[in-house]
Specification:
The complex is a heterodimer. Chain A has a single domain, classed as MetI-like (MetI-like fold), CATH 1.10.3720. Chain A is built from 13 helices and two strands. Chain A has helices spanning 2-36, 51-58, 60-94, 97-108, 115-126, 131-139, 152-176, 180-188, 193-221, 225-231, 238-248, 252-277, 281-285, and strands at residues 38-42, 45-48. Chain B is α+β, with helices and mostly antiparallel strands. Chain B has two domains: 7-232, Rossmann fold (3-Layer(aba) Sandwich); 239-364, RNA polymerase II/Efflux pump adaptor protein, barrel-sandwich hybrid domain (OB fold (Dihydrolipoamide Acetyltransferase, E2P), Beta Barrel), CATH 2.40.50.100. Chain B has eight helices and 20 strands. In chain B, the strands form four sheets. Chain B has a six-stranded mixed sheet, sandwiched between helices. In chain B, strands 11-12-13-20-14 form a five-stranded mixed barrel. In chain B, strands 15-19-16-17-18 form a five-stranded antiparallel sheet, with no helix packed on it. The longest helix of chain B is centred in the middle third of the chain and has 18 residues, at 169-186. In chain B, 41% of the residues are buried. The chains are: A mainly alpha, B alpha+beta. The interface between A and B is medium-sized, with 17 and 26 residues.
Chain lengths: 287, 368
């Protein structure tokens, strides 16, 4: 009887997770997929087929936006890594005790404010009559007001800002677990700062780097608010296209197909990234 | 034979925010010798070693390796290598890559690295393990790989920071002998720091006892054991029974000390200037105390007393008895002679002890 009881307990504990997975992730996706492969042939008349996917490949605007989104997200990820790594290294290795906690908290504090408000913050800074433009005019670097918003740079800034915490946290965790004596041993054996970074620190931090990159890439790829607000009408972010299909055009079939293409894209890039860095998903995300 | 010293420290001092970790330490280590720095934790020995390695810079004083001052020279530019306390082998590399790390930094050709790595592994007795991973090795093997990783660079001085601390007792005993053999094999100067006196005594040519940032005594293992310079060394190196009391008589080098319990003890004075009335400490080694089943009297048997067996700590050849003074209740440790005469000794038995005053050391308080 004891084993039956423990089995019951096991299933009860598993139930919330299963409920979450089935009702909120698997079922909607099955529904979405079903919608995506149905073509509208007349009023309330549908046929099963891959027509919606064909539309995507035949319309350059769609797949170019798609490629652009992927490219920008990858750039964001690389930029976030380059910015986040020194910060994480500083927090994990060069600070102790209270300072460490304080710095970590300071990275976290912006996330107590909603993403919308944070993005508006950037708009206040970057717009034509904003802080940056006024400051540069005041110092005489530029003659008249300059619009810093509504370009790719502004999108990138917003995306890096939104996602850098998700890079720093896994990096700090893995760098924290790197024994200081390994770095000292590297120096002792004649290594330079660069060779130690390349041969000891980065190989050790690889799981953290990869898991941070996966999260940041996913967040950027699926971000809707930041590209629309900071990039304006011409932001051409793929999530924006999906939104248009669902809400403006009311073309759920095409919207679903786009959704699945985005899912395929993110999976493919993550798979490629793992293969290139010779890491496994369980090794990077399962810790 | 006066070969130039590999390592010279002159009045080396290191101050931290609110205390002095290393206080005006001066010493020389001759080429090819095994030099140990022995001291309790917190005595500054790790700071001293890290200054030699270059991870910390001295506040004042000078540090010379092969005659060249190392002030302002980074750890990666010094001709010293260090075996870390937890070895610090790189888990992300194979054994061969680990050992080759230093050579790669120097830009040695790949084929030569391969050959030299193979050679050094042979010398430490682990040929052909280049392709294994660090976690596939046993504790003793890791130890040897860590030494090989340093020795492949042919450093002038090898620093060892309590590398045996993490090993179990049996392996530690084995590695002591092995380290000594490796040192002889490579004929490199070893500077070894430890808090374990038996490691220092067994392996070293010269030992320094360090306490509170200062060197208390430098000498051979024998010197430290038989001729300790002060009370701290006498208490720290080897086991000793310690008595405290007031000096009641000074007769040349032999002083008489009366303990608080009223027992008079005789011992040889170390240092000068003992005067009647001063407080002093006496140290007697457990093996210097003679046991007898019959009462001992006469001039040969000063320090004779009657004691009761408190317990017998059987440990083969190193067995001890703990004896209690029936009057004062003080206990002393005595090595049990392995002649068979005291085989049946049991708790509560009465036994007579004595020791030669020349075998006991007296230190006047305040001069340590």
């Amino acid at each position: 009887m004891g084993s039956d009881r423990s089995k019951l307990g096991f299933y009860l504990l598993l139930a919330p997770l299963l409920l979450w997975l089935v009702t909120l992730i698997i079922l909607p996706h099955i529904g979405l997929f079903a919608v995506s492969i149905s073509e509208k042939v007349g009023v309330r008349e549908y046929e099963t087929g891959l027509g919606n996917y064909a539309v995507f490949f035949n319309e350059p605007l769609y797949w170019r936006t798609f490629a652009r989104t992927a490219f920008m997200s990858i750039s964001t990820t690389v930029l976030t890594l380059l910015l986040g790594f020194p910060i994480a290294y500083y927090i994990a290795k060069l600070t102790r005790g209270r300072t460490k906690t304080t710095l970590f908290l300071m990275c976290l504090i912006p996330f107590w404010v909603s993403e919308l408000v944070r993005t508006f913050g950037w708009m206040i800074l970057l717009r034509e009559t904003g802080v940056l433009s006024n400051f540069l005019q005041y110092t005489g670097v530029i003659g008249g007001p300059v619009e810093f918003l509504y370009n790719d740079g502004a999108i990138m800034v917003g995306l890096v800002y939104t996602s850098i915490l998700f890079m720093i946290v896994p990096l700090v965790t893995t760098l924290d677990s790197l024994d200081d004596s390994l770095i000292e041993a590297g120096y002792d054996l004649g290594g330079s700062g660069f060779s130690i970074l390349r041969e000891i620190v980065i190989p050790h931090a690889m799981p953290g780097i990869v898991s941070g990159c996966i999260v940041v890439f996913m967040l950027s790829l699926g971000n809707y608010l930041t590209p629309i607000l900071l990039g304006g009408k011409d932001s051409l972010w793929f999530t924006g296209l999906i939104y248009t299909q669902f809400i403006t055009r009311f073309n759920w079939e095409l919207g679903s197909a786009f959704g699945f293409l985005l899912l395929a894209l993110s999976s493919a890039v993550v798979f490629l990234g793992l293969k290139l860095s010779r890491q496994s998903l369980s090794n990077t995300m399962g810790r | 034979m006066t070969s130039p010293a590999d390592l010279v420290c002159r009045e080396l001092t290191k101050d931290f925010d609110n205390f002095r970790a290393v206080d005006q330490v001066s010493f020389e280590v001759p080429q090819g010798s095994f030099f140990s720095i022995l001291g309790p934790s917190g005595c500054g020995k790790t700071t001293l070693l890290r200054m030699i390695a270059g991870f910390q810079f001295p506040t004042s004083g000078d540090l010379l390796i092969k005659g060249n001052s190392m002030l302002g020279v980074g750890p990666n530019k010094r001709p010293v290598s260090m075996v870390f306390q937890h070895l610090a082998l790189f888990p992300m590399m194979s054994i061969g890559k680990n050992i080759g790390f230093g050579l790669r930094q120097r830009g040695v050709a790949a084929s030569e690295i391969k050959q030299r790595v193979g050679l050094v592994l042979e010398r430490v007795g682990l040929p052909g393990i280049e392709d294994r991973q660090v976690d596939q090795l046993s504790g003793g093997q890791k130890q040897r790989v860590a030494i090989a990783r340093c020795m492949v660079l042919e450093p002038d001085v090898l620093l060892l920071d309590e590398p045996l601390g993490a090993l179990d007792l049996k392996l530690r005993e084995h590695m002591k002998i092995e380290l000594k053999a490796l040192q002889a094999e490579f004929n490199t100067t070893f500077v070894y720091i430890t808090h374990d006196q038996s490691e220092a005594l067994v392996m070293s040519d010269n030992i320094v006892v360090m306490n509170k940032g200062r060197f208390d005594q430098i000498g051979t293992a024998k010197d430290l054991y038989y001729e300790p310079a002060n009370a701290f060394v006498a208490g720290f190196v080897g086991d000793a029974n310690r008595f405290e009391g007031k000096i009641t008589a000074v007769n040349g080098q032999i002083v008489t000390v009366q303990t608080e319990a009223g027992v008079s003890l005789h011992a040889q004075l170390t240092g000068q200037g003992a005067a009647v009335g001063q407080m002093a400490q006496i140290f007697v080694r457990p093996e210097a105390i003679e046991l007898s089943k019959t009462a001992l009297q006469g001039a040969d048997h000063s320090n004779a007393s009657e004691r009761i067996v408190d317990s017998v700590l059987f440990n083969g050849a190193n067995s001890l008895v703990i004896l209690r003074d029936p009057i004062s209740g003080e206990t002393i440790q005595v090595t049990l002679p392995q002649t068979g005469a005291f085989l049946g000794l049991g708790k509560g038995e009465t036994i007579y002890t004595s020791w030669n005053p020349a075998q006991a050391r007296c230190f006047v308080d305040g001069d340590a």
